[in-house]
Amino acid sequence: MRANPIFVSASPSSPVPSGQTEVANRKGKVFMTLAPFADDGRAVESLVRTASIYLEPEEIIEGVNFPAALRTLMSAFRSFASDLVRRTYDVAHKRYAGA
């Protein structure tokens, strides 16, 4: 079983507790989490997993791992959804404002 990239761990058998909000220190390494965005992260993770894409945390500086690819995709999906909602609202407003 794979470790959840939202709460990154030193090994799949010892995941970082979900109560951790910023960092967890194990074996001299720091594993940053996306705890404030956990629901968004799980949604994006399930979407990319359907395409057989598995996101692993990256070592952003020596000894510090962060799920940067997941965070980037979360931002892209959020931006896409926001743009879609704004455009839909704009079209609906133009359609029904003149009626």
Fold and architecture overview:
A 4-stranded mixed β-sheet has the order 1-2-4-3, with no helix packed on it. The chain has 99 residues and is of the alpha+beta class. It is elongated and about 65 Å long. It has helices at residues 38-50, 68-97; strands at 23-26, 29-32, 58-61, 64-66. Mean pLDDT is 75; it is low at 1-22. The protein has one domain (23-97). Helix 1 (38-50) crosses helix 2.
Helix content: 40-55%
- Gap from first CA to last CA: 56 Å
Largest sheet: spatial strand order: 1-2-4-3
Count of helical regions = 2
Number of domains: 1
Mean of pLDDT = 75
Order of helices and strands: EEHEEH
Beta-strand residue fraction? 15-25%
Instruction: Output the radius of gyration.
Output: 18 Å
- Poorly predicted sequence stretches spanning 5 or more consecutive residues: 1-22
Give the overall form.
elongated
- Based on secondary structure, the structural category is alpha+beta
Largest sheet: 4 strands, mixed
Number of strands: 4
